[in-house]
Amino acid sequence: MFENLLNISDAAKLLGVSPSTLRRMEKTGNIEEYGLKVIYTPGGQRRYILDEVQQLFSNQGFSGQIGFGTKPALLIRDFTIAFTEPHSQLAIKMDHQITATQQLIEQALNDKIPIIFSKTIYETKNKVSRLWCEKFPSLQILDRESTWVNIHPDLSDYPYDLINATVYISSLYDDQVDDFLKDRQIDTLILAGTTTSGSIRATAVDALQRGYRVIIPKEAVGDRNQTLQNSTLVDLNARYADVMNLDKVLKGMKP
């Protein structure tokens, strides 16, 4: 029931107000004038509906739609064993992301859309990798030869056009991926994978700065908890990408 809700701190941050402002608006009865409802958890915590916060963003001049271009590519990030195995220290909250990604892949194959699988690895000799690992020590399990970096079994047999192992947070920081996209005159990048607040966000920002339209099917990305997932999707949709339902993305992929 509470998965598609934001807590008061996240809602306030995204709306550019303080939590006390939201509390005051609720107390005076003004909050519904802005299209927001307050829901209370069994523990008495305030929650705000994700779609309503996103709509308020739109009304404030955020969340404009970029839409699809004419040449899309699908980029999947880090749906590897390390991020999808429940016992892994890097595991995300799994729902139906793998199934959603399979649908994206099948649609891409049907319409001859290029598919890239990008996966994070840890390299002790790489300065960036070592530095990132100082901040995020769990990355040490992602040795290139480790089974942790193997693609999830339900995704491993597909014929990817490019499999890119990278030490970088953004998949586009690696010239191999950017060159691949430019050689095929790609103008739209569909992002699936994990984590939404990490590599998906970084890649979305990087892609927009390089002139790509960015589409994110919200059912095909994941993070370590639902609150982080929700707040990041709202912010991505407000600033850098079009966050859509899976069905809408699948329709947009068709010629």
Q: In percent, how much strand structure appears in the residues?
A: 15-25%
Low-confidence parts: none
**SSE sequence, one letter per element:** EHHEEHEHHEHEHEHEEHEH
Task: Give the CA-CA distance, first to last residue.
Answer: 37 Å
Number of helices: 10
Major pleated sheet: 7 strands, parallel
By DSSP, the count of extended strands is 10
Mean pLDDT value? 90
Share in helix: 25-40%
Based on secondary structure, the structural category is: alpha/beta
Shape: globular
How much is the radius of gyration in Å? 19 Å
In terms of topology, how is this protein built?
Layout: E1 5-7, H1 8-15, H2 19-28, E2 38-40, E3 46-49, H3 50-59, E4 72-77, H4 81-84, H5 97-110, E5 115-120, H6 127-135, E6 162-166, H7 175-183, E7 188-194, H8 196-209, E8 213-217, E9 221-222, H9 226-239, E10 242-244, H10 246-253
Nutshell version of this structure?
The chain is of the alpha/beta class and 255 residues long.
Comma- or semicolon-separated keywords:
255 residues; three-stranded antiparallel sheet; seven-stranded parallel sheet; globular; 10 helices; 10 strands; alpha/beta; single chain
Q: Describe it for me?
A:
- Helix 8 runs parallel beside helix 9 (226-239).
- Helix 8 links the parallel strand 7 and strand 8 (213-217).
- Helices cover 39% and strands 17% of the residues.
- With 255 residues, the protein is an alpha/beta fold.
- The chain has 10 helices and 10 strands.
- Strands 4, 5, 6, 7, 8, 9 and 10 form a 7-stranded parallel beta sheet that branches. It has a 3-stranded antiparallel beta sheet with strand order 1-3-2.
